[in-house]
Design goal:
about 850 residues, alpha/beta, Beta-Lactamase, Alpha-Beta Plaits, five-stranded antiparallel beta sheet, rod-shaped, binds ligand C2E
């Protein structure tokens, strides 16, 4: 969009064409003048030639008379010859001497030679006809010639008379009145012709002189015009050259502004910096008086100044510019540009109606032109670039092009900033993800190492102790498995908040993934570390409301001290881990400091786990079977499958040692599965062998029990091995129900529905509540051997065992006592009406063949 611009001045080329035209005129006038002059010359020449010819007629006539008279007077023959020659020449019978008009017939040389060279022989009358004489003149001359010819005859007659010696008569003939009349008759037409030629020549010369004067005037005028045009053309050329020079300078200035703009883009780190630079460059290099960049405030529908530069920036103080077409401040160049989406060039700021609202204000700063160029981001107008100049029509095509190009560059830069911003955000995100745990916002493992290293370095320099606590939630996996990961994650976030509240300035807590948190506490001794651990356990032990769930969790904490337990993060972590492992082992929900013994245990644990990974594939495991006997009948009614493991390196490892390692490492899933299949297969084999039927009891760890597909899997194994479910009993520990009683009940129901029996192993050592026990679909309680061991001596154990048997009976459950080694124990159990027993008193766990032999005996 544009406001009007003044029309352009005539160009140098117009003058060049006009000058060429004038030169043409000068040439034509000059040629015309030359032509007129030539015509005058020709007329004069014609008059001269006519005069000569007429004169020749007169002269020859005179000469003939003179020759005839001289001959008559002297009798000299020479004159008669001259007379003949004159006639011969005039009639074209003899060559005409050159310059015949000047010939005097008396200048004949003594030797009778002619003094002049002769030319062609042409009759005088022919010459006269060729001399372009007028017809009436020719007629007069012909008449004169005729008269002269008649007189020639008289001359000849007189000369003949003289030859007849009558000189007197001859003289009279040449001098009488008739002769004179004849002479006069010749001269009259000649005179008339002369007059006619004179008159005609004069008239022609006069007419041509007029033309010549006209030509002269035309020549002078056109020459003057040419001079004027050349002068003005030269002035224009100079002006244009200066203008071109100025333009070149201006354009190069503008381009240097553009180049500055590009440099600004390269150098600027953000929008604000770029806008400032652009405004400064367009003023410093682009010939503008002032420039500003305004951004659209969408909420207020107004333009706010983002950057400005130049003389008169005070103009912008409290400047009102809006985009509202209904308000006067919204109908200015910016408003117009916004609505059309086009740049608006206001070439006469002080008189343009669209700037009326700001005229008074702008006049104070001398604005004569202004522009509003939209700035776009992703195609949307986000603001305006507004340069001001103190000359009208400041925005010619070149300036417009430049400003538009600058604007495009700014938009390009904005796009780059956006890209850079996205990249930086991505970098920050990557950095964040690399150093922080997304779920809790706590530092992650890598950040922990970095920060912990710094804290330990501080401790080293300050010679102060520091504590590293490793906290692991107990049975957190159960929450994930039963309530889902969303609840688990929410609980972790909540816990992270609570844990952070325990920290002093300078302490740090990190999440290592899963449910493990690490605390690094500089300047802390072991006493303070115990306090912190207690506090943490308290905090965690409080109930946590997550959605509809009211959750209670506990944690195990291992503590390693700097510098006593280690000097570097890795060592301290390892040792805190070992301490925590011991807490887990000892029943969880507690804290412990690292000790050297723990380290050994931890190392042993690691060794076991590593070896366990290859135990099955290296066929290092086998299953033994311990008989279970009915106290009533004394017959073997069942067998407990017990796993055995030995390796060349470790020798025989007790299940009490490797089973917990397998559970903690998750290897129990595959190992337990293998045991189940072995036991089921063995039971089927014994059935097939026709041995007395028995129930095969298989230990199932809590980890196995929590597997979602357990019931289906067990049923599948039974089906594949062909053993009816009533021949299998799964020994569950009380622990299976601690975390999620409802889930445990559901699993037990599913197993029960498939006809699979369940017993509770080690009853009395765990935390099963009787209310739960009622709901469990178990049919047997196994009294833990720790109670059985001392029943013959320890009254308390006796009471406990009796109570368990009674309680089981009241619940309709069968009881079995394990670890029965002596007759006394057996007797006491029988007294208490315990149903079954298992122990060394009957048999140690036996390999299949030996068990088979024992069973065979029973058959006998
Ligand atoms: N002192 C003494 N001990 C007796 C007597 N009678 C039996 N025992 C031992 O008592 C343990 C009974 O198994 P448990 O309570 O289920 O306790 C088992 C069981 O919890 C676990 N275990 C063994 N095999 C497996 C298995 O295949 N899967 C799972 N999950 N756990 C198993 O390891 C524990 C230890 O197993 P074992 O060392 O085989 O130890 C067995 C057995 O050898 C006795 O009269 N005196």
């Amino acid at each position: 969009m544009k406001s009007p611009v003044r029309p352009p001045q005539p160009q140098f080329f117009s003058y060049l064409w006009a000058s060429t035209g004038a030169l043409l005129l000068v040439t034509v006038a000059f040629l015309f003048y030359v032509w007129t002059e030539k015509r005058i010359d020709q007329a004069n020449e014609l008059r001269y030639a006519s005069h000569n010819l007429v004169e020749e007629l007169r002269q020859s006539s005179d000469d003939l008379s003179r020759m005839a008279r001289t001959y008559v007077a002297t009798g000299d023959i020479q004159y008669r010859k001259h007379h003949q020659e004159i006639v011969a020449i005039r009639e074209g019978r003899m060559p005409r001497p050159r310059n015949y008009e000047n010939v005097y017939w008396d200048l004949v040389l003594a030797d009778d030679r002619r003094p002049r060279a002769s030319a062609a022989a042409v009759p005088l009358m022919q010459l006269m006809r060729e001399a372009k004489l007028a017809p009436e003149e020719l007629a007069l001359l012909a008449a004169a010639k005729n008269e002269s010819d008649k007189l020639v005859l008289v001359d000849i007659a007189a000369m003949d008379v003289r030859d007849a010696h009558d000189a007197m008569r001859a003289t009279t003939m040449l001098h009488d009145a008739a002769y004179h009349r004849a002479k006069a008759a010749i001269m009259r037409p000649i005179g008339e012709v002369n007059d006619s030629v004179e008159r005609r020549t004069r008239l022609l010369v006069e007419a041509t002189s007029l033309d010549a004067n006209l030509a002269r005037v035309a020549f002078m005028c056109s020459a003057l015009l040419l001079v004027v045009l050349v002068w003005r053309g030269k002035r224009k050329l100079d002006a244009e050259r200066i203008a071109a020079m100025n333009r070149t300078q201006r354009v190069s200035r503008l381009y240097s502004a553009l180049s500055q703009c590009n440099q600004a883009i390269v150098r600027s780190h953000n929008e604000a910096e770029l806008f400032e630079r652009i405004c400064r460059d367009v003023v410093s290099y682009g010939g503008m008086q002032m420039a500003w960049i305004g951004l659209i405030d969408r909420e207020l529908d107004r333009i706010t100044v983002a950057a400005s530069y130049g003389g008169g920036v005070e103009y912008l103080d409290e400047l009102e510019v809006s985009l509202d077409a209904g308000a006067p401040e919204g109908r200015g160049p910016i408003g117009l540009s916004y609505r059309t989406g086009q740049p608006y060039w206001c070439q006469d700021y002080q008189h343009a109606p669209e700037t009326a609202y700001w005229h008074a204000r702008g006049a104070r700063y001398g604005w004569a032109s202004s522009a509003a160029i939209p700035l776009r981001r992703n195609g949307d107008i986000i603001g305006f670039f507004a340069p001001y100049a103190n000359a009208v029509n400041a925005f010619d095509q070149e300036v417009q092009n430049l400003l538009l190009e600058m604007t495009l560059d700014i938009e390009f830069a904005l796009k780059n900033f956006d890209r850079e911003k996205v990249r930086q955000q991505a970098d920050q995100r990557v950095h964040y993800l690399a150093h922080y745990d997304v779920l809790t916002g706590l530092p992650n493992r890598s950040q922990l190492h970095e920060r912990a290293r710094q804290l330990l370095e501080q401790a080293r320099v300050n010679r102060t102790p520091a504590a590293l606590l490793m906290l692991d939630l107990d049975h957190f996996k159960d929450i994930n498995d039963t309530l889902g990961h969303t609840v688990g994650d929410a609980l972790l976030s909540e816990l992270a908040l609570r844990l952070t509240s325990c920290l002093r300035d300078g302490d740090m807590v990190a999440r290592l993934g899963g449910d493990e948190f690490i605390f690094v506490m500089p300047n802390m001794n072991s006493g303070e570390a115990s306090d912190v651990a207690r506090k943490l356990l308290d905090l965690i032990g409080q109930s946590h409301t997550v959605g509809v769930h009211d959750l209670r969790v506990s944690a195990s904490i291992g503590i390693a001290m700097y510098p006593d337990d280690g000097h570097d993060v890795e060592t301290l972590l390892q040792r805190a881990d070992a301490a925590m492992f011991q807490v887990k082992r000892a029943g969880r929900q507690d804290f412990r400091f690292f000790t050297a013994a723990m380290q050994q245990r931890a190392a042993r644990h690691l060794q076991l786990v590593n070896a366990l990974r290859y135990a099955l594939e290296r066929e290092q495991m086998h299953v033994v079977y311990q008989p279970q006997v009915s106290l009533k009948t004394g017959r073997i009614i069942g067998a407990e499958a017990l796993l055995r493991w030995s390796t060349p390196e470790l020798g025989v490892v007790s299940p009490g040692e490797f089973i917990p390692a397998a559970e903690e490492s998750g290897l129990i899933i595959s190992i337990g599965d293998w045991v189940l299949r072995q036991a089921v297969r063995q039971a089927r084999a014994w059935l097939d062998a026709g041995l007395p039927s028995l129930v095969m009891a298989v230990n199932l760890s809590a980890v196995q029990f929590r597997a979602a597909d357990l019931p289906a899997h067990v049923a599948q194994v039974l089906y594949e091995e062909g053993l009816p479910p009533e021949y299998l009993e799964l020994e569950l520990t009380e622990g299976v129900a601690v975390q999620d009683p409802q889930g445990a009940i559901a699993t037990m129901n599913a197993l029960h529905d498939r006809g699979i029996r369940m017993s509770i192993d080690d009853f009395g050592t765990g935390f099963s509540s009787l209310s739960h026990l009622k709901k469990f679909k178990v049919y047997k309680l196994k009294i833990d051997q720790s109670f059985v061991r001392d029943i013959s001596t320890d009254a308390e154990d006796k009471a406990i065992v009796a109570a368990i048997i009674n309680m089981a009976r009241s619940l309709g459950l069968t009881t079995i006592a394990e670890g029965v080694e002596t007759v006394e124990q057996l007797e006491f159990l029988r007294e208490q009406h315990c149903d079954e027993m298992q122990g060394y008193h009957i048999s140690k766990p036996l390999p299949p063949q030996e068990f088979e032999a024992l069973l065979s005996k029973q058959r006998d």
